Amino acid sequence: MNKRLQVLKYLFADLLAAAAAWTLFYLYRKIYIEPEKFHKDVPLKFDEKFFYALFFIPIIWLLLYYLTGVYKNIYRKSRLKEVGQTFMMSFIGVLVIFFTLLLDDEIVSYRNYYQSILVLLSLHFGITATLRFILSSITNNKIHYRKIGFNTLLVGSNENALKLFNEIENQEKSSGNRFIGFVHVDNKNGFSSELIKKIPHLGELTDLKNLIKEKEIEEVIIAIESSEHENIGKIVNELDYQGILIKVIPDMYDILSGSVKMTSIFGEPLIVISREIMPAWEQSLKRIFDVLISLFVLIVFGWLYLIIAIAVKLTSKGPVFYSHERIGWHGKPFYIHKFRSMYIDAEKSGPALSSKNDPRITPLGLFMRKVRLDEFPQFYNVLIGDMSVVGPRPERQFFIDQIVIKAPHYKHLHKVRPGITSWGQVKYGYAENVEQMIERLKYDVIYIENMSIGVDLKILIYTCLIVIQGRGK
């Protein structure tokens, strides 16, 4: 299964559709609209403007599709839903083209405007939807007849798991699940002797993370027994930031929280745990804002970076920057960068959080922390995609291991990029101990469940007020 090739097929089809629709629309204008305007036949000539439009307009369409998430989950497309989405995108795109390129045309009557919009919409939607429908139908056919499959791990080892496995495997048309094996939940319950004859036993819950990477798992189906329901929170917490599709059997619905939606895999209905925190278009817009804000700060305030760097170097021994490993998006480690605000060897006795009157903090460092200047180098982290401007603050693995003992749901924070500022950071600033980290956690979890561009802007405004007033800690 080559996802990159499948995306390229869609890109080519969309590019071809946009070019064909614009060419046919150009012919329509030359044959019908312009003769009515000039009261004579117009020579059919493909001029320079046509070729410029033919080059740029399809690219703009592709950008619009990319920003709205058309090319995500390329193998898991509902044809009916895709037709509806294609119509909405076509309608929006045609209106943009009309107001930017066609509105200033000389016309005989406003009827020509309506005709132009209707023809361009019909052409673009018709060709694009048809080509996409063909591609989706070919893909769905390959899935149904088991030519394409998604590596699937079954969580559960007894009656429910065996029943679900048999149901899915015996479907006349496959739902695309290619079972790699199963893991058991509780040693005291053992596992079905019938199930192990059909698929390999790969381990237990503690092996989940490694198995997902090792076996390239794309989907996990949870089919545990009623007596094992107490483990559901631990299972979801372990899986929720892995970038995989999670499904559960319906009788677990009442013990799950969060955003879920019912779906049906032919004969066997399952509940899909939705991992989409923001719509695709809003995620893209958030990333665009991150890049633009980072470029603005790095370029416009370059002089300030230089002054701070000189001040750090002159006021205490040691490097200008402090770089250290943090855990970020999907649990992946990255190096965060700050202006050094502590004396060198501040953690020679081991990892330690800063406190209100921490003697390890330099006088300049104390000032920088109050106005958040020590965080400025992190705009580089944002630019390269390790972080976002707004998001939960990243922590070291050393402290995460302590937090998850008391608050296993901390792992939900790894569903998004960590940020330079957050609601928890605005409320608490730098946490002084694990208890404060856990207290701050609830604000970050609430932020994740309510993420939007509007919420980000509010947090940025409050952060700016803290910087201006020097109220940071």
Can you walk me through this structure?
By secondary structure, the chain is an alpha/beta fold. It has three domains: 3-144, no CATH class; 150-273, NAD(P)-binding Rossmann-like Domain (Rossmann fold, 3-Layer(aba) Sandwich), CATH 3.40.50; 280-469, no CATH class. The chain has 16 helices and eleven strands. The protein has helices at residues 3-38, 48-67, 79-102, 110-144, 159-169, 193-198, 208-214, 232-239, 280-300, 302-315, 363-370, 378-383, 397-406, 423-428, 434-449, 453-469, and strands spanning 150-155, 177-184, 201-204, 219-222, 245-248, 260-265, 268-273, 321-327, 333-339, 388-390, 419-421. Strand 1 (150-155), helix 5 and strand 2 form a beta-alpha-beta unit. Helix 1 (3-38) packs across helix 2 (48-67), helix 3 (79-102) packs antiparallel against helix 4 (110-144) and helix 13 (397-406) packs across helix 15 (434-449). It is flat and about 90 Å long. Residues 252-260 have low confidence and may be disordered.
Give a quick rundown of the structure.
The protein is an alpha/beta fold. The protein has helices spanning 3-38, 48-67, 79-102, 110-144, 159-169, 193-198, 208-214, 232-239, 280-300, 302-315, 363-370, 378-383, 397-406, 423-428, 434-449, 453-469, and strands spanning 150-155, 177-184, 201-204, 219-222, 245-248, 260-265, 268-273, 321-327, 333-339, 388-390, 419-421.
